[in-house]
Design goal:
Distance between the termini: 60 Å
Shape: rod-shaped
Structural class: mainly alpha
Strand content: under 5%
Number of domains: 1
Number of helices: 2
Helix content: over 70%
């Protein structure tokens, strides 16, 4: 069984398309995880700010993250 050039090109196109789809899924998943992490972190800091009635925890968090 020999592979013709058309079959080889089909294989290359399939691999490229599946690779692009995997990269897109990875970017979307990474974005989703990052948004969830920072949303949770923001609510934790917001509760701390509410508890102590000042923005000092927010400033400390900004210094820690930068």
């Amino acid at each position: 069984m020999t592979l013709y050039k058309e079959d080889q090109m089909d294989d290359i196109v399939i691999y490229l398309v599946s690779g692009v789809i995997m990269v897109i899924i990875g970017v979307i998943a990474g974005y989703h995880v990052t948004v969830r992490y920072y949303t949770r972190r923001f609510f934790v800091v917001a509760k701390q700010c509410e508890k102590v009635q000042t923005i000092a925890p927010l400033i400390a968090e900004l210094e820690r993250e930068s």
